[in-house]
Amino acid sequence: MRAFAAVLERFSEPLVLREADVGEGLPVKVKASGMCGRDLVIWRGGFRNLTPPLILGHEIYGEYEGNPVGVYGVETCGECRYCRAGKENLCENARFLGEARPGGYAEVVTVKEGGIFPLPDREYEKYAAGVCPLATAIHSSKVAGVKKGDTVLVTGAGGGVGIHTIQYLKSLGARVVSVTSPSKSEIVSRFSDQVITQKDFSKQVKDVDVVIELVGSETINESLRALRREGTLVLVGNVTGKEISLARPALTIMREHRIVGSASYTRAEVEEAVKLIHEGEVKPVYRKYHLREVNTAMKDLMEGKVLGRAVLVTG
């Protein structure tokens, strides 16, 4: 099947707007597609197993046979030991839309049977903006064991994942310390108990119970300085793709820090995120761009100009 799409033909170059092959399967008319930090890593050539041309995007919402649906962003096998244990986010045979098959930066996306789920309303933009980051927050909070009363530090709190993570943490009853840029501090402060905009933020906060590390190499050492003894740092992202190294390994050893990764989310967590957004428990924060403005959106994201998520719409 062919449809109008934004195609990555060469790494680190503008996407090309043209008709393209979007594969075969259930045809979903795309109404809104979120732009994930993973997409930027792919655009830069950060995944060596991928070869252009590619149609990016795994946060996809639209219509199938006239009904409002979401698209699961990852195809899983259902057979490996992780899928059988309900941990399909760790599927040994996972295939991301936007990578292994054409994604949502298009007017139509095709998916396999079982690859879609119903939406409770037709407000596609809010789901495209909020579901992936919120599901990420739900999963990483479980990995960390966040509980009511915990002090949780979040780096990159004004970004697409961050702005929704801090809202979710507040709903859990956590005390939220947000690290963000000065330009985003005002809105971030609405969902935070403390906002820090300086790079050496460990001078302003000590002994946090948990760190949700969304930035990675640029902030992880400050985060570890702020983490209490026996505290947990959950590594969710590494936005620059640079190697992560510990400046003071002895600090982590002597404090018995726990550093653990958080890989995406499960389908159940996607559905939980949809419910929280539909019920207004978490308010999606985003900037809207038309599909034809995709390169402007990419540039704005890379320059840190987007508060929350960038969302591509087709209408």
From TrEMBL:
<dbReference type="GO" id="GO:0008270">
    <property type="term" value="F:zinc ion binding"/>
</dbReference>
<dbReference type="GO" id="GO:0005737">
    <property type="term" value="C:cytoplasm"/>
</dbReference>
<feature type="domain" description="Enoyl reductase (ER)">
    <location>
        <begin position="6"/>
        <end position="312"/>
    </location>
</feature>
<dbReference type="Pfam" id="PF08240">
    <property type="entry name" value="ADH_N"/>
</dbReference>
<dbReference type="InterPro" id="IPR013154">
    <property type="entry name" value="ADH-like_N"/>
</dbReference>
<keyword id="KW-0479">Metal-binding</keyword>
<keyword id="KW-0560">Oxidoreductase</keyword>
<dbReference type="GO" id="GO:0004022">
    <property type="term" value="F:alcohol dehydrogenase (NAD+) activity"/>
</dbReference>
<protein>
    <submittedName>
        <fullName>Alcohol dehydrogenase</fullName>
    </submittedName>
</protein>
<dbReference type="InterPro" id="IPR013149">
    <property type="entry name" value="ADH-like_C"/>
</dbReference>
<dbReference type="InterPro" id="IPR011032">
    <property type="entry name" value="GroES-like_sf"/>
</dbReference>
<dbReference type="InterPro" id="IPR002364">
    <property type="entry name" value="Quin_OxRdtase/zeta-crystal_CS"/>
</dbReference>
<comment type="similarity">
    <text>Belongs to the zinc-containing alcohol dehydrogenase family.</text>
</comment>
<keyword id="KW-0862">Zinc</keyword>
<dbReference type="InterPro" id="IPR020843">
    <property type="entry name" value="ER"/>
</dbReference>
<dbReference type="InterPro" id="IPR036291">
    <property type="entry name" value="NAD(P)-bd_dom_sf"/>
</dbReference>
<dbReference type="Pfam" id="PF00107">
    <property type="entry name" value="ADH_zinc_N"/>
</dbReference>
